[in-house]
Amino acid sequence: MKLTAMLRAFGGMLLIACLAFTLSACEGEEGPEGPQGPAGPQGPQGEQGEKGDPGTDGEDGEAGTAGCVQCHDVSATVKAIAVQYEASKHGSGMTFERNGTSCAPCHTHQGFVEVLETGQGSTAASIMNPAPVNCRTCHNIHVNYDQSDYSLATSDPVTMFTGETYDMGSSNLCANCHQPRSADLPEIDGPDFEVTSVRFGPHHGPQSSLLIGASLIKLPGSVSYSSMNSHENVDDGCLTCHMAEAYGAQSGGHTFSMGYDYHGHTVGNTAGCESCHGEIEDFDINGAVTEIEGYLAQLKALLEAEGCLDEEGYAVPGTYGANLAAALWNYRYIALEDRSMGIHNPRLVKAVLQNSIEAVQ
Fold this sequence. Notes:
This protein is mainly alpha-helical. It folds into two domains: 75-153, no CATH class; 177-360, no CATH class. Helix 11 (288-306) packs across helix 12 (322-338) and helix 11 (288-306) packs parallel to helix 13 (346-360). It has 13 helices and six strands. Strands 1-2 form a two-stranded antiparallel ribbon. A two-stranded antiparallel ribbon has the order 3-6. The protein has a two-stranded antiparallel sheet with strand order 4-5. The protein has helices spanning 2-26, 77-87, 89-92, 104-107, 109-118, 135-138, 172-175, 207-211, 238-242, 274-277, 288-306, 322-338, 346-360; strands at 158-159, 165-166, 193-195, 259-262, 265-268, 318-320.
């Protein structure tokens, strides 16, 4: 009986083991996670806090136009300046297409601004889409939005291309451009000199150089050279005369012109000269202009006879004696490039012309 009970117990245990083994053998890999169920209900919203104190209103700021009206007021000043400048050669000229690296500094607005910042004699590259010289070229327009916007872009002394220093107040601005570029000049009593261009002479606008007595060739002769030019003592140089009281849009002010047309004849605007010379009718003070015109005519005839100058005033390329080439340079400098008929530096111009005439003769 005991044996029979033991066999039954053993058989039961064997059956349970077989079932466990069978279930384990039939179990597969775990399947993917099922989709997420719907969100449960949202809890109740909390209570909103009380609003804070809005504070007191601040003071009203300055009117937006307050800065503008310091310049753009109800007067006609800005309009008058604009009309004058539009009539000037600076404002009406079309030479700002000369945008190459050596021309752009004086012929374009962007070029002038660039070289003032860099201190270089030329721009880094040609100026694309150039703008003409305008208000913002010479003035600090719309920087502070007050009267200081009328201040000049620069009034620093100018080291000229030929090495001299020009320092005459506000007209230093002008001297940045109104000076000749450096050039090879004939040596006095030196070897023959080759003139290669019909435009032989200082590049356009040597007025600042003449004021300080630079770039003319001082040939020896019977007339001594004075080191003094009374016009060097004029306050602000160029501006004192060229920006004197305006006559409409024809002269003075921002036209920079020294004369105007009146019923078919030109009248000099002498307003800037009278603080030194007193009341005068024209620029021919003590016959100085007439005298210099005579010397220029005499020198022109001699140069034409030598074959180095044509009737229109252009140089004739060729090889000439050094002193003859120097006289040619001086003539074109005074008559065709400076064009003040000696007014910018009367003593020096008179001496240079007289000695140039003697050199050619």
